[in-house]
């Protein structure tokens, strides 16, 4: 992309030292008797400080001096923006299996998981097997998911009237707007009144935004904040500006950072302005975008995401594969060895891997726990920093590649995760050793009583009495 310089960069190339004060650049000249000056206390050194253009005038001058460079920069940017958006679309289309897997996840698995908040697993499993009862609740969950998709990615009715090319332009523009920075990197320690200035004397500018319009001395690429001072020692630099005196204090930033920040913020403004004026460029790809149906478009948009959360469940992508998860609330599970002891765990995502191949969905491998839970005995590699640990299959059963069986696999995994110390688990781990570690060396999070767990808002899972409170 074309490189465009800014006025601060050019000033630094022309002269090694200068001053920023209010919203104006001051040149340091070899002259005595000027109202604004730089002197070295105890010596004959005296330099004049001469006000030059304001920051905003320099910024406008930049746009005139660099007009061809800015136009070339904006042309390159628009071409690259369209290319990147289309490439993202094409990358998804090349991986059709991802879209098919997503459709299966969104229409077959997640509606059941969402509907679990309305009813019991038993009733919902019957509906999955065609036995009615819970189907209304699953349909309700499908409608809930559809509403969220419409909210996040637009509806079919809207798409009939919206211009997809214009929508793409607006999406790129929105990304640029989100990247706009307005914070200062030079702290605002002095007010305009402290500097003897009024608001009328200071014009809005990007450099003023960056420097807070503070008095700054720049020399050989180093930045010094000018601090008000009345008393000086021999050898001190004394700056007189607008009737007030200052001494330089070193700041932990350099001129290249200010120059870079000025360029980046100005470039964002140029890019946004180019997007506002670039409707024709985006209209050239209108026909291609029109070919997509809204439902497909939503799946394509979903496929660009690494995670989509529906509060109690959702999916995420890792290493190109989808994991459908059910989210447990935070819970305290009873210790099957001591009925008055409960071990707490925070809300956790338990997942199964789901893919699509040869025209059908499939699930492989054991269920996994996405979040790191180092004190849970049923996890292989429980201390792994990144989580994603395999979960024991205490049910010792296999699952077929149908929607009901995948849902059962995930539901069984959630139960195993929430009941790691029930009778089946304790009996199947000889000597209470889990993946080579004894329970007493794993359960280090601090036990709670039933009353403490309830008071602290944990769901209480009682494995001995087979109930949840």
Distinctive features:
469 residues, alpha+beta, 2 domains, eight-stranded antiparallel β-barrel, 17 helices, 25% strand, elongated
The counted number of beta strands is 21
- Determine Rg (CA atoms, Å): 33 Å
Parts with pLDDT < 50 across at least 5 consecutive residues? none
Q: How far from one another are the termini?
A: 62 Å
**Largest beta-sheet details:** 8 strands, antiparallel, barrel
Number of domains: 2
Percent in strands:
15-25%
Strand numbers in spatial order across the main sheet = 1-2-4-3-7-8-6-5
Contiguous helical run count: 17
What's the helix and strand layout?
Blueprint: H1 7-14, E1 17-21, E2 24-29, E3 37-40, E4 46-54, H2 55-65, H3 67-94, H4 96-115, H5 121-128, H6 135-153, H7 156-161, H8 164-178, H9 206-211, E5 216-219, E6 222-228, E7 237-241, E8 244-254, H10 255-276, H11 279-283, H12 286-290, H13 294-303, E9 307-309, E10 313-318, E11 321-328, E12 331-335, E13 338-345, E14 348-357, E15 360-369, E16 379-380, E17 389-391, H14 403-418, H15 423-428, E18 433-434, E19 437-438, H16 439-442, H17 450-455, E20 459-462, E21 467-468
Parallel strand pairs: 12-20
Antiparallel strand pairs: 1-2, 1-5, 2-4, 3-4, 3-7, 5-6, 6-8, 7-8, 9-10, 10-11, 11-14, 12-13, 14-15, 15-17, 16-17, 18-19, 20-21
Helix pairs in contact: 3-10, 4-6, 4-13, 4-14, 8-10
Describe this structure in words.
The chain is of the alpha+beta class and 469 residues long. It folds into 2 domains: 1-95 and 164-305, no CATH class; 306-468, no CATH class. It has helices spanning 7-14, 55-65, 67-94, 96-115, 121-128, 135-153, 156-161, 164-178, 206-211, 255-276, 279-283, 286-290, 294-303, 403-418, 423-428, 439-442, 450-455; strands spanning 17-21, 24-29, 37-40, 46-54, 216-219, 222-228, 237-241, 244-254, 307-309, 313-318, 321-328, 331-335, 338-345, 348-357, 360-369, 379-380, 389-391, 433-434, 437-438, 459-462, 467-468. It has an 8-stranded antiparallel barrel with strand order 1-2-4-3-7-8-6-5. A hairpin with a 2-residue loop joins strand 1 and strand 2. Helix 3 crosses helix 10, helix 4 (96-115) crosses helix 13 and helix 8 packs antiparallel against helix 10. The longest helix is centred in the N-terminal third of the chain and has 28 residues, at 67-94. The protein is elongated and about 95 Å long. The protein starts with 6 loop residues before the first helix and ends with a strand. The mean pLDDT is 86.
